[in-house]
Design a protein that fits this description.
The complex is a heterodimer. By secondary structure, chain A is an all-alpha fold. Chain A has helices spanning about 1-10, 15-25, 30-35, 40-55. Among the domains of chain B are: about 5-50, no CATH class; about 85-110; about 130-160. Chain B has helices at about 5-15, 20-30, 30-50, 60-75, 80-85, 85-110, 130-135, 140-160. The termini of chain B are far apart. Classes of the chains: A mainly alpha, B mainly alpha.
Chain lengths: ~60, ~160
């Protein structure tokens, strides 16, 4: 669990914020986009890249 | 449906926040890459579920309000408390010294140059003004001349009654 937390915290700031807001706060794309001051489309791409990064980082635990 | 279109919704579908539409399901059935990607993302989401972000204590608000009330109830320090600080007192002393020094320096400057007496303008010789100024200066002398004139008149009166 600590390793998972560290991997999330090691993400670039924008990706980390997006993951926390989406996964742990259950915020929708529109809300996340408002917080990050991005378009909704850009937010979706950002989230996709963040989860792909986490997938690579957490591969050993899968 | 294109792969790029389904990728935008993949995090929501993988997190279980929304279901895949019919069109999306059809694409996933036909596109192995997208299906694999969704499967891996779902596994990542499940792993992330193991870390629960800490939640605030239900008594957090109550304790915060109590601390705020305590701070507001504390007696406020008066303005004299500022003077107890040594640095501030030293700075004020220096400022007062500078002010007193400036005051006495300014007064000494004005004392060293007292105002000069006014001198009367001297008119040009031969003018009416200069004649009047001469009469003013020699008033005593001219009054003696008038006395001499009176003396001469008296002698004439005595000689020729």
């Amino acid at each position: 669990m600590l390793a998972i937390r560290r991997k999330v915290e090691a993400l670039p700031e924008q990706q980390r914020l997006a993951v926390i807001m989406h996964k742990y706060q259950q915020m929708d794309y529109k809300q996340i986009a408002e917080v990050l001051k991005r378009s909704e489309s850009a937010t979706k791409s950002l989230l996709f890249r963040a989860y792909e990064t986490l997938r690579e980082q957490l591969k050993e635990y899968l | 449906m294109k792969c790029e279109e389904i990728r935008e919704r993949m995090p929501d579908v993988a997190a279980g926040l929304t279901r895949a539409t019919a069109e999306e399901s059809q694409h996933l059935a036909s596109c192995a890459a997208c299906a694999e990607q969704l499967k891996a993302m779902s596994a990542t989401m499940a792993l992330l579920d193991e870390w629960q972000t800490p939640e605030l204590s239900p008594y957090f608000d109550v304790r915060l309000q109590a601390r705020l009330r305590e701070e507001m109830a504390k007696p406020q320090a008066g303005w004299l408390s500022w003077l107890r600080r040594p640095v501030l007192a030293a700075a004020l002393t220096v400022l007062m010294g500078i002010g007193v020094g400036l005051f006495f320096t300014h007064n000494r400057e004005t004392y060293e140059y007292p105002p000069q007496e006014e001198t009367a303008d001297v008119a040009e010789p031969g003018s009416a003004v200069s004649d009047l100024q001469a009469l003013d200066k020699n008033h005593d002398l001219y009054s003696d001349f008038e006395l001499l004139d009176d003396l001469d008149l008296q002698q004439d009166v005595v000689a020729n009654p």
